[in-house]
Amino acid sequence: MNMHLTIHRPFVIGMMIILCAATHGSAQDNRYVSVATQVSVGGANVLDTYLSPEKYRGAEYRFVSEVDRDSRKHDGITYNLTHEGAFAYLHNRAVTTHEYVGHYDFSYAVMRRWRLADDRLQLAAGVMADAFVGFNYNNRNSNNPAQGYGSLALGARFACSYSFTLFHKCMTVNYEGRVPLLGVMFSPNYGQSYYEMFNRGNYDHNIVAYSVSPFQLRQQLSLDIPVAGRTALRIGYLGDIRQAEPNNLKQHHYYNAATVGVVIRK
User: What is the pTM of this model?
Assistant: First the structure.
């Protein structure tokens, strides 16, 4: 559901608050809780009616770097910093046309953490700022062969973990999710070419406000298995639902994947 552009001012104010919190948090004497590096391989389903009415499917590969840290000065406050890069090679149903899709996603979250059951169960929830840039190239189109993506969003992030002993090893099950709630995104208008926008300077509602509809959710379920010292092997599932309907265009990007990585706790 597109919203009126009057939300731009409160949105920008909210983004400034989150970024100030990020700067303040990084300047504090924080101790790192965990540093996770993961790769994921899975299937993607992509639709962008600006390029084609067809849905494209194929393999997508992602690299994710994630840092969680607790603040020494503010008990119960935790910070999450996530970088994600992705590339997908997709095809239509007849396998006659291909799309090359990629993105970079950055998010920063400030959350309140609760430790329960002698620290075996941990819950966290808070606010996040998210910045996303990407591209989609269709090798069949001649007029408009590519589409660029860019968005800024405010949203919610939540996480929980539970530690238990199995085979004399202390393992941890983790779940985390994030939901954009309010944002702005770039999009050409229906029937508008990039030549019109950038060569002729014809602006046509190309910065679009959006809210929680259509629904978006990025979530991960994982298991940490200790291997040596403070290092653990992380295996799990990553699911990502991105949807938008800017300027009478329809976009979605669905991703389901297996993940594997290393977690170092300090």
Answer: 0.85
